[in-house]
Amino acid sequence: MSSTRIEQLLNDAQAAFDHRPTDIEAGLNVSDAALLQLRKACRLLAGAKALQEQGYYTLVIEASFVAMERTVEFRLLERGMMEPTDLPGTHPGVYREAASAGIFSESTANDLADLWRDHRAKTYYQDGLAAADRAKAMYALAQEVHEFVLGRSSQGHECLCE
After folding, report:
1. C-alpha distances in angstroms, 128 versus 53, 122, 124, 157?
2. Distance of CA 42 to CAs 19, 67, 125, 142, Å?
3. What is the three-state SS of 91-145?
4. Full-model pTM
5. Which of 41, 43, 48, 117 is nearest to 72 (CA)?
6. Residue environment code for 61-81, b if the CB has 16+ CB neighbours within 10 A, otherwise e
7. Residue 69: which of 141, 127, 158 has the closest Cα?
8. pLDDT at 126
């Protein structure tokens, strides 16, 4: 491995994002921004489930948080409360917007933001250790958030979850 090789791979990666994709992940080729967020959440949950079974708990925790955020963003877009270019730029911002939109109570949104702040960052960046029980709890929470939001949506039938 050399810096020249890294530079070449970096250029290849940049080029891959610079042109229109042709082999798009199944289910994600939708023109509606809300449905795209919904289906990304579905895929994240499916990935988290598969990874949990293989013991990749760090990834399960990460995917569970992101799945909740994509699910909230789906609802914000679906309800016309945001444009795709205006989605919250921070993880806690997603939960604040969820409370403002009435998706969750202020208390629940604050608890979700605290959970992200206190434990996601620790697990991913600091001294927190991913463990089976933590991954299991986060996956269950993400599934429940997804189902709760879909239960209030007229587009719940667009969900890709099994």
Report:
1. 21, 5, 7, 37
2. 25, 7, 25, 10
3. HHHHHHHHHHCCCCCHHHHHHHHHHHHHHHHHHHHCCCCCCHHHHHHHHHHHHHH
4. 0.90
5. 41
6. bbbbbbbbbbbbbbbbbbeee
7. 141
8. 66
- Look at residues 156, 152, 5, 137 and name the one whose alpha carbon lies nearest to residue 65: 137
Low-confidence ranges of the chain (pLDDT < 70): 1, 126
What confidence tens digit (pLDDT) does each residue in 27-41 have?
A: 998 999 999 999 999
Calpha distance 11→25 (Å, rounded):
22
The predicted pLDDT at position 32 comes to 95
- Which amino acid does the sequence have at 50? A
Distance from the Cα of residue 94 to its chain's centroid: 11
Q: Judge whether 97 and 88 are in contact, CB under 8 Å.
A: yes
**How many Cβ atoms are within 10 Å of 149's Cβ, its own excluded?**
22
Residues ≥6 apart with Cβ < 8 Å to 35: 74, 155, 158
Tokens of 142: 């993400």
CA torsion 43-47-48-50 (nearest 10°) is: 140
Residue type present at position 24: I
